[in-house]
Amino acid sequence: MEENYLDKLNEPQRLAVEATEGPVMVIAGAGSGKTRVLTYRIAHLLNKGVDAFNILSLTFTNKAAREMKERIGYVVGESNAKSLWMGTFHSVFARILRVEAPLLGYPSDFTIYDQQDAVSVMTKIINEMNLDKDIYKAKQVLGRISQFKNNLITVRAYHNNQALIEADNEAMKPRMGDIYRAYVDRCFKSGAMDFDDLLLRTNEILTRFPEVLAKYQERFKYIMVDEYQDTNHSQYLIVKALASRYENLCVVGDDAQSIYAFRGANIRNILSFKQDYPDAKLYPLEQNYRSTQMIVEAANQIIKQNQDQLEKNVWTANESGEKIAIYRGLSDADEARFIASQIWERQISEHLQPKDFAILYRTNAQSRALEEALRKRGIQYRVFGGTSFYQRKEIKDMVAYMRLLINQNDEEALLRTINYPARGIGQTTISKLLVAADQHQISLFSLVENIAMYAPTIGINAGTTTKLNNYALMIKRFQVMLKSHDVYEVTMEMAKTTQLLNALKEDSTPEGVSRLENVQELLNSIQGYVEEQQQLEDGDASLSGFLENIALATDADNEEEDDNKVNLMTVHLAKGLEFPIVFIAGLEENLFPSMMSVNTRAELEEERRLFYVALTRAEKVAYMTYSVSRFRWGKIIDCEPSRFLEEIDDDFLDWKNLNIPVRNSNNSGLSADLFGDEPSAESYKQREKSVARPNPNQRPSGNVQPRPNFKPVNQTSSSSAGSQENALGLKVGQVVVHDRFGRGVVRDLQGEPNDMKAIIHFDNAGEKKLLLNFAKLKIIRS
Ligand SMILES: Nc1ncnc2c1ncn2[C@@H]1O[C@H](COP(=O)(O)OP(=O)(O)OP(=O)(O)O)[C@@H](O)[C@H]1O
Ligand SMILES: [Mg+2]
């Protein structure tokens, strides 16, 4: 055991760690060690002899939980840390529901529907009810239902709530209640829960079954919640119910970082903690250990402008640090190029690694330009969120088969697999089946399984009947196989028998190859899962266990093994994380703050908190970038710098390139003329929060002190060096394969031998200039 671990805490942190009995709340600024307090507190509990089994810790991501576990393992020994219950609300309560959901009539192997499944169910409902799709938009309707669920408004409660009904009538959606009922029925019949159900049903069980509540109250004698500011009402009630017996509850959070109000997070949870637990102890943490003085002070100044916040005094003893660099791009491509060039330079000049950098942005769509710039520089990166591994089509197809094996009522899984790979079961047949299943009040699978009996009345011919029969038999066979073989063996067999692997193998395009690799990767991960679980004492190598991990992987849970890469993610996903160098990109009006969020003060304040979260991720250096034009919604639009930039005092800022002409704007087709289009000082003054200050773009140049090593971007040597030697022995005219762009022909070689670039024309991707030191090329024909 690590000795004197309490010495690694400052005074208030140590007190919060040692106050293990009774309610405790820590509300403190970013980087002040809240998460560290929780980690050490758990270690301390274990060290005092509390059984790991009795500790529940709720984190924002599963990754955060794993990291905490690891850290706790260092302090108290790994074996002790293993049986801790840690994870997101969704993953912890999904685990409990596996045991308890049958109380509500769900199968214990219930499926978890992700957003895509939910949208598909909703689209069907809206179609079947013949509703106007422009008024009843599937995602919007689901958003509304999510609100209901997170506030524990069940279908029945909705129908008894005149105010809600009237609100929906006014919103031109009088059928909302019927849709809600149809959606809940449909999920229930499929034996499926969506994400909000995981919390709603947990609440339902804890309320309706006192003996179950008592069981978990006994079990979780010590409860901890990180990022408490972002818990919604449903989560709040679960915690409250579980903690109400022992009240050994410790919540930590920061009201200034509450960024999920749009999803129902409720800052009042923090404020009412004192009322719920009048004896609660409060420990203010004020010292920031993460960031430089420059960053801490600038962040303090930003958040001070919000009216709704608890008073805090955050300071740091860290070095003063560099000013925040601001860069103005001519286009999103130029902005991205600047960022990539800075990463490149800092890696070399400061011996930093790719993983030391994070690029944060407001919307996922911004990653495209950034990715392109990083690729051009040969910088390794990974994108969190967006289309995660498990959302890819080929993976979802495989997973749908797996889901069907454990829950044959899972209608979404059935619809996804019934004719993929193609087995001649057409859309008309499927529509007939859906109607008939509904008429006979049986699940789609039962219908397909007994199709011979129903076929004549439904109007399905003999050929199709055989096909449906074969499909059902195949699924049944795997279900049986699952009883005697491990999960990996069954899924491997399934991938082969269904022809799924073959279908992918036939496609030899680079995309096809990568799809096949993805499926292989999935099979590998199943194998890894089976082996890992078999080694654990209370291991669960079941298919449902595996599927649960997949369904609940949050966007921030990136499982990539080789993690030495530049991190790209939205600010929302960056919560709780820290990186030596952080770029905040796209600081423009209508982007950050988002266009949707500038109408009320409350919305704007949430955007400002988001900005505060972004800046406070940085340890050593922060950059803020914006662009005067950007490719959005299919066209180039002009942009103004974000009002947030104006809100930071000049003492903290270093405006990088105001007096440096930006060299070019390559593929954006823009020229320096754009400078003339920027907003006037006048338009700034008109803004609500505007400080009396000139347009930042027209600041006196005396303010601009480019760092000595600052170079204008995009100066590449273009001396032709086609005949020179290079590492690969590459020559003009050779045919090569690139792992991303596929097959191509070398057109030209440029630059110094040790920094050579190749111009390659790719069959599918067109002409690219690649840095040979980084591009992974294979010569296939000289
Ligand atoms: N007493 C301490 N001594 C040394 N380092 C510390 C101390 N307290 C915290 N740190 C370090 O400071 C950094 C920030 O801590 P932590 O992530 O726990 O802050 P936080 O309050 O949870 O931040 P956030 O609000 O962003 O979630 C971490 O790297 C942590 O290890
Ligand atoms: Mg934290």
TrEMBL record:
Residues 293-576 form the UvrD-like helicase C-terminal domain. Its EC number is 5.6.2.4. Residues 7-292 form the UvrD-like helicase ATP-binding domain. It catalyses: ATP + H2O = ADP + phosphate + H(+); Couples ATP hydrolysis with the unwinding of duplex DNA by translocating in the 3'-5' direction. InterPro entries: DExx_box_DNA_helicase_dom_sf (IPR013986), DNA_helicase_UvrD-like_C (IPR014017), DNA_helicase_UvrD/REP (IPR000212), P-loop_NTPase (IPR027417), UvrD-like_ATP-bd (IPR014016). GO terms for molecular function: 3'-5' DNA helicase activity; ATP binding; DNA binding; hydrolase activity. GO terms for cellular component: cytosol; DNA helicase complex. Residues 669-725 are annotated as: Disordered. ATP binds at residues 28-35. Residues 695-725 have a biased composition (Polar residues). Keywords: ATP-binding, DNA-binding, Helicase, Hydrolase, Isomerase, Nucleotide-binding. The keyword Thylakoid does not apply. Signal peptide: none annotated. One of its GO terms (biological process) is recombinational repair. CDD domains: DEXQc_UvrD (cd17932), SF1_C_UvrD (cd18807). PANTHER family: ATP-DEPENDENT DNA HELICASE SRS2, UVRD / RECB / PCRA DNA HELICASE FAMILY MEMBER. Belongs to the helicase family. UvrD subfamily. This is DNA 3'-5' helicase. It comes from Chishuiella changwenlii. The gene is uvrD.
